[in-house]
Amino acid sequence: MKLKQKSLGEIVFVGVCYLIIIFMCVVTLYPFMYLISASLSSATSVMKNEVFLFPKNFTWRAYQVVFQYKGIWTAYMNTIFYTVFGTILSLTLTILAAYPMSKKRWAWKKTMGLFVTFTMWFGGGMIPFYLTMRNLHLLDTRLGILLYPAISAFYIVIFRTHFESLPEALEESAKIEGANDFQILVRIIIPLSKPIMAAIALYYAIDRWNAYFWEMLLLTDDAKVPVQVLLQRIIINSQLGQDIAKALSPGEATIPNTIKYAAIMITTIPIIMIYPFLQKYFVSGALVGSVKE
Domain with 253 in it: what CATH number? Predict the structure, then answer.
């Protein structure tokens, strides 16, 4: 329908929708743009609040100082390790938990469904969880960081609903050919579930990349901490290594905000760059399984 054929009310409605979208884009993107500009500006300009949208007195110094910090590279490698292997582990366990729960022939289907749903609303608490990790000898270990957020009950429910929506005839025909449940899952179900797997994998990866609270509590060895814990130390506690302290000028008693902004950008950009590669799956997979056919 052409614009001139629309009524005044429709034109006003469309215009208001566009204004709301533009406003939300500005509100969402401006903090990110400010971080970029502030990290590329001089410390004096940022301190005087002269940076609004574009860098003031452009300089790469903040990034040069951060990249001189050897600890950030170790933390980066730790984060990549936790994110990659943690996402693979979480996705595998979620699929293995959801698949049997989607089968009507399983006698414990409803019981396990109630058990999983119960854990979405009730938990043991922080102290019991910490004591459990201690008793399992998982404190200050990479294995503990991989296991503690290994599976999400919410994502199990999404996968289960998606598996239930797939035609049962696929499984029946495969069984006639002699396939077992594991072969059906690997050769039929998983290939048909790539969109939802990509979406859930992205959610798991983002959660892993941004995690810092339990990592901060469970890890005491600086060689094992992820980059988000290091970022927390830089921003809140203003803690940096001696190699960074030597790079600061004599007049800088504390860490300039530009260095903090640069550290934020360095830890944020990599996970943002993953999204375009999964975008084609994300839109279709985000809602798959939310409505059962």
Answer: 1.10.3720.10
